[in-house]
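Data availability excerpt. The first of two example chains:
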Amino acid sequence: MIYIKKPAKPTAPGEPFLHQDHARPVTRREMLGAGLISAPAVVMAPAWLGALLRSGNARADGLMLDQQALEAACGISGGGASNPKAIPFICFDLAGGANLVGSEVLVGVKGGQSNFLSTAGYGKLGLPGSMVPSSTANISSALGLLWHADGAILRGIMSKATTPATAANTNGAVICAMSQNDTGNNPHNPMYGIAKAAIAKSQLVPLIGTNSTVSGGNSQAPMMLIDPTLQPTKIATPADSKGLVGGASSTSDPVQVAVLESQSRITLGTSNSTGVLSNSSMTVFPADATADAAAKVQARCAFVKTAYSSSAFTATALDPTQDINIVGGATPIFTATDFKDGDVAKTASVMKLVLQGFATAGTISMGGYDYHDSTRASGETKNFKAGQMIGAVLEYAQRMNTPVMIYVFSDGSLSATSSPDNSAASATSQGGRGKLGWQGDNQSTASTFFLVYNPKGRATTIGDPTTQQIGYFSADGSVVTTSSPAANSVNNLVYTVLLNYMGLMGNQGSFGTLFPTNGLGTAAAGMNVFNPIV
């Protein structure tokens, strides 16, 4: 008797990935990776702050801090948009273990992207022999960084980056680096380091993220970089963005501002001088005068910053659905209907705040990237969607005439079957496109990449273009763990990203001083890819 194996069926968009070799998802991170949940639309704030903001008994006749006092005492400034050296930064956290290289960004052996792997090596990364990049027809340099010409992320990017100058002024680099599969324990997220490295302060909040986690995303932030005063504000919808200044009003509310100012005055003293900003009869740390003063400053500044934000900004100014560079013109990046999609809502909200300088950096988490269901169509569809969101950020940067650095990572990766998926594309699926199906997790094939958009022209490499690949693969398709300090250390992977962010601003010389615990050592000199763009 002959048994015929039933072909695997692609997972429909929005349908979770539940694998027999995986335990039932229990934690929030596991459910995000499987696509069972998305980022909820809740802005988190301390309960005590919310209680005070609801107070209706405060008098609104005092505490009018002048601009200089605000800047000196509470760190309020004109924001990143007014300082060309504050390069906006957005990272995409693809939860579940996505394929990012080989079938997407090209990787090679020692010597760079064009020093190709073996046919078997690319097969491990999802490409049949007819699609390996040794054929120039399978290579695209549209974004500067070499890509497989049929990469789903590339196709998604180009579907949104419709202005020719967007792709023409984009470049990037790939970092060959392993990370654990299907876990949020990888300290992938560089947000805190970015906030520390950014030269200019943002106008409203330092960091934002689509998840209510310490990092703002699915993966963790390196412990040594976490600063509780910079914890990301949760932004996942346009309503969250508008909530930063108190609601849906298109004009600032003088009553609201006065109430907030009065709450600050009656709660923590009346002086508006920077020297006595912490004056208060309340004692927080009885045994530690320095900590007590710092706590009072932080508490009072929470009110002062909120009052300043309500006065200086309007909800409409933060609303991506009202931005003509996003929803207007002959080729809108997103339409009103698109905003019904949670990934669109969160991407538009984050890119609006970051690229306009309201936040220094933002994390966008996208779930469901644990797509090894033995098909290729599921992975192609998910990667294309990620590409669309990345392309939207690049296109918006072009329309806003601002630079941006985009970093893309995932928790682990996967390897392919030997069977091609020839399923057809449809309205909801990209189809298999003749590529090999994804069959299981494989952290040895993991890597990350970053893209840089520069309105002044495509960023140039410091040395030979081979520097656009940091580290390298073996010919059989695995990361060589000794190829760079980042290859087998996620902490060093984050430091590599921070080094390159600082390099774009021309202050990489301060990297060792700013991050003394980094593990890059003398290798750091060869891991900075691009010349400054500002």
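And the second chain:
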Amino acid sequence: MLRELYIQHLAVIEDARVELARGFNCFTGQTGSGKSLILGAFEILLGLKQASADMVRPGCNEARVSGVFELHDPQLVQQIGQLIDQTLEPGEELLITRKIFATGRSSLSINGQVATAGMVRAVSELLVDIHGQHDQQYLLKPSNQIELLDALAKATELRETFASLHRQLSDMTRRRQELAASRTLRQQQLELYEFQAGEIDEANVQPGELEQLRQRHQLLSNLKRIQRDASQIHMALEDSEDALIGRLQQLAHRLDDLSRLDRETLDPLSQQVRSALLSLQDSAYELGRYANRLELDPEELGQVEQRLNVLNRLVSKYAAGPTVGQDPLALVLSYRQQLQQQIDELRMQDEDLATMDQQAAAVAIRMREVGSELTRRRQAGVKKLRPLVEAQLQELGMSEAGFDVAFITPEDAPAAAATDSEGATVNAMASCSPQGLEVMEMMVRTNPGQPYRPLRKIASGGEMSRIMLALKAILAHHDRVSVLVFDEIDANIGGRMGTIVGQKLRALADGGNHQVLCITHLPQIAAFADHHLHIHKVVEGKGAQRQTRTCVSPLTGTRRIEELAQMLAGQEVSATTRRQVREMLAAAG
């Protein structure tokens, strides 16, 4: 409920603290006293009306409007807490403040924290419903109409299930579109990766093979030179007339003879020379064998060169990064493993696409089943709601009015009908609203011979307020909006109808879920109020210093009787009028 509205320096309001009570609160006052300004201040606070610098009281730097709300419904508290990013508990107060500066700037805060206009409007939609301003009413939005009808038809849980399925299908559809859009690119990537993997696999790369081939190639490329030089060395050592080994043997014999003369010194040296001679003879023997074994095979050289070309090409293409100190072919094999992972992922995405189609089809079929049951319950709810609303409208002086609910199925989403193709079913369900297979719109015919028109397009403010009152009277138990503001509800109606309207406003407030605020000119309506507030202007000062300000004061007892008597009979109030007012109050309870 709205416990307090504080207005300071706004137009002719200098300082007004409006304390409100539970139940039915009414505002009365003479024309021009500022009743519309009180409502306007409330709309400015909630972001439902544009604030401008010319609203600041002359001579003041800023105007301020604050509203203190009491929150008790746990679900409502949680929703508002999420909207304003604050932790709230049931029973806490919610303070909304708007400042309007003379410079034209304005600011908003909720519980002392800076807030945006969007946040405040979102909160106001949950807290307040102002009737009389067409584009700002909760019930004028088809989405809100659906919620209330579903509550009446006990279909809220079905709608939430449908919305959950719709989110799943939307996610699947978006993901599928992304996969389908990238399918050509994925195919191109897959072909490239498979070609690269095939190229590596076809080469049958072996770790360490490259170094072995390089050494073999070096040998084969220099075979003639090696064979020639090895043979020459062998001849120089052993097979020529002045071979080194023969000469060394002669020297060894002479040193051996000398060692007999000085064994202590020369014998060790003689042994070393003979050891070197034996080693040289072995080397010469092996060198001779090596030279004899060398044979040039042109085909092997070509094969080695061809293999080296293959491996070097793979290294240049797939051994990314520096290869110093590493086996380049090991890097190629590592890249091959990466290729396999990417190939598997791309193939899996194509498999996901097929699986996703099956899953989406299953969700779409379930949506169609839930949506069809939701439609059935809503239609049953409309059959129940239609006569109730029309009966209320008759009581409110609109005896010829008709009420209906139109269910509009999008042309491109024949969702209620079963389709033969899974793809068609998915497309049909995806194009639906999250709230069901069809869009719902409350329709009203105010006069005979006129067509039914959407509730949001009713032109008359008085008709609109009475229609809203009729709907609220029926749907009150299913509506979480706690503060209901009625403006222009007494337009074009007389005292007898005013009594009926007053009864309905009292009944709406007595339900315990709503606080009703009503601006009225009819004493028959005001008599039913639990809390009566009087709005009047006061002129203070003299001459050029005269100032006008609007005041709001509660009326009880004799003062309330006098106000109602003046509303009933004008300024000339008689004892008879006062007696009539007392009878009116007694009848109102």
